[in-house]
What we know:
Largest sheet: none
Shape: elongated
Structural class: mainly alpha
Number of strands: 0
Number of helices: 12
Oligomer: single chain
Order of helices and strands: HHHHHHHHHHHH
Amino acid sequence: xxxxxxxxxxxxxxxxxxxxxxxxxxxxxxxxxxxxxxxxxxxxxxxxxxxxxxxxxxxxxxxxxxxxxxxxxxxxxxxxxxxxxxxxxxxxxxxxxxxxxxxxxxxxxxxxxxxxxxxxxxxxxxxxxxxxxxxxxxxxxxxxxxxxxxxxxxxxxxxxxxxxxxxxxxxxxxxxxxxxxxxxxxxxxxxxxxxxxxxxxxxxxxxxxxxx
Length: 212
């Protein structure tokens, strides 16, 4: 029920979030340098009001991050629902991160796990991800698809962070094309494997042929 109290709380919450973004993006500050006092002054609220909504500054930004993940979900869910290509879905993720690159760049200077970014963006897609992870690849290795998924998502998250650190110079579509090459015939795996096979003794070349 949308009572006046609920509406007032929502308005206050939005004011605090906008103030936190302003402190971060306009002030160019990472989370660890932003204080509750700064946010309250920017939002025009007192400290007791802030603590009625959030535990601390980190709690605020974690909740903001989850809200942004929901925004990303809404943006690209249509592509899942209409069975658009994987290229289009991934391009949407890179596009979203680029639109909010100031936030992500400053926020993730505080995160030590490179996979955290993709975990948060994945959060609303758990139903789709569960289906992907449980698919049988037919190679006789139970749960092999889950290993592929972990490898893929860790790589994507590292790419996103490297892209942010490089000021998002490449277009989102170019980044998705890079992903295609990473898993295609021009991948480092194939290049390294070819080099190892060429340099291996004759008796070992059959092994390298089996792992291509």
